[in-house]
């Protein structure tokens, strides 16, 4: 059975969140295609992971036999997130843009799972795992747009997930999500709707396709 690690980070619940709506479409398609599979779910808004402390950081560079009680406890917490990453056959991440970057809760999760010598660096224990990132944003930040230079979500996550962790990264980008809520953007509502519909379709297709590909390997 294949395992999907699903991580959401939007502060908005359910359909009020563009990223959650799209990750939900992916997950539903995955579960319909592979109902006997396993889903590990992390809602980083409802249950934030701890930020890295000095003990959690230093424990990585010390022999476990020499850990202080504080280091041992802190690293045990990190180990839970690391093992979930390593156990996953596919990863799904909801990453809305907040103030041009990712939510701090998602950054904290990444800081916990990036461990040089295990998940990152020469070893990359989850190397090659497919990860689908739903990078929603209220405006438009693609090439040629006025705010292209403010796009720090895909650039950052590409560097961490692909370059540091060795994951196989694909982005789904629903944009202009603020258009229905801001009168000044009313003319952009059709573009928002087209972007939303494409993102939902792409997510469902990707979820179904990955389940088809991975389920036989994990059986």
TrEMBL record:
<keyword id="KW-0560">Oxidoreductase</keyword>
<feature type="binding site">
    <location>
        <begin position="97"/>
        <end position="100"/>
    </location>
    <ligand>
        <name>FMN</name>
    </ligand>
</feature>
<comment type="function">
    <text>Also exhibits azoreductase activity. Catalyzes the reductive cleavage of the azo bond in aromatic azo compounds to the corresponding amines.</text>
</comment>
<dbReference type="InterPro" id="IPR029039">
    <property type="entry name" value="Flavoprotein-like_sf"/>
</dbReference>
<feature type="binding site">
    <location>
        <begin position="17"/>
        <end position="19"/>
    </location>
    <ligand>
        <name>FMN</name>
    </ligand>
</feature>
<feature type="binding site">
    <location>
        <position position="10"/>
    </location>
    <ligand>
        <name>FMN</name>
    </ligand>
</feature>
<dbReference type="InterPro" id="IPR023048">
    <property type="entry name" value="NADH:quinone_OxRdtase_FMN_depd"/>
</dbReference>
<dbReference type="Pfam" id="PF02525">
    <property type="entry name" value="Flavodoxin_2"/>
</dbReference>
<keyword id="KW-0520">NAD</keyword>
<dbReference type="InterPro" id="IPR003680">
    <property type="entry name" value="Flavodoxin_fold"/>
</dbReference>
<protein>
    <recommendedName>
        <fullName>FMN dependent NADH:quinone oxidoreductase</fullName>
        <ecNumber>1.6.5.-</ecNumber>
        <ecNumber>1.7.1.17</ecNumber>
    </recommendedName>
</protein>
<feature type="domain" description="Flavodoxin-like fold">
    <location>
        <begin position="3"/>
        <end position="172"/>
    </location>
</feature>
<comment type="subunit">
    <text>Homodimer.</text>
</comment>
<feature type="binding site">
    <location>
        <begin position="136"/>
        <end position="139"/>
    </location>
    <ligand>
        <name>FMN</name>
    </ligand>
</feature>
<keyword id="KW-0288">FMN</keyword>
<keyword id="KW-0285">Flavoprotein</keyword>
<comment type="function">
    <text>Quinone reductase that provides resistance to thiol-specific stress caused by electrophilic quinones.</text>
</comment>
<dbReference type="InterPro" id="IPR050104">
    <property type="entry name" value="FMN-dep_NADH:Q_OxRdtase_AzoR1"/>
</dbReference>
<comment type="similarity">
    <text>Belongs to the azoreductase type 1 family.</text>
</comment>
């Amino acid at each position: 059975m294949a395992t999907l690690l699903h991580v959401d980070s939007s502060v908005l619940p359910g359909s009020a969140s563009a990223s959650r709506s799209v990750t939900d479409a992916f997950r539903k398609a995955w579960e319909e295609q592979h109902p006997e599979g396993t889903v590990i779910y992390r809602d980083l808004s409802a249950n934030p992971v701890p930020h890295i402390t000095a003990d959690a950081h230093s424990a990585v560079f010390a022999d476990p036999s020499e850990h202080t009680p504080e280091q041992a406890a802190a690293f045990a917490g990190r180990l839970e997130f690391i093992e979930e990453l390593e156990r996953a056959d596919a990863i799904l991440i909801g990453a809305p843009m907040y103030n041009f970057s990712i939510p701090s809760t998602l950054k904290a999760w990444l800081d916990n799972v990036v461990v040089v010598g295990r998940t990152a660096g020469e070893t990359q224990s989850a190397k090659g795992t497919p990860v689908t990132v739903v990078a929603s944003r209220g405006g438009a930040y693609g090439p040629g747009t006025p705010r292209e230079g403010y796009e720090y979500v895909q650039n950052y996550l590409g560097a961490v997930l692909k370059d540091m962790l060795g994951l196989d990264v694909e982005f789904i980008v629903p944009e202009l999500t603020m258009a229905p809520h801001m009168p000044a953007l009313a003319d952009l509502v059709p573009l928002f709707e087209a972007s939303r519909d494409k993102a939902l379709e792409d997510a469902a297709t990707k979820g179904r396709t990955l389940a088809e590909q991975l389920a036989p390997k994990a059986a």
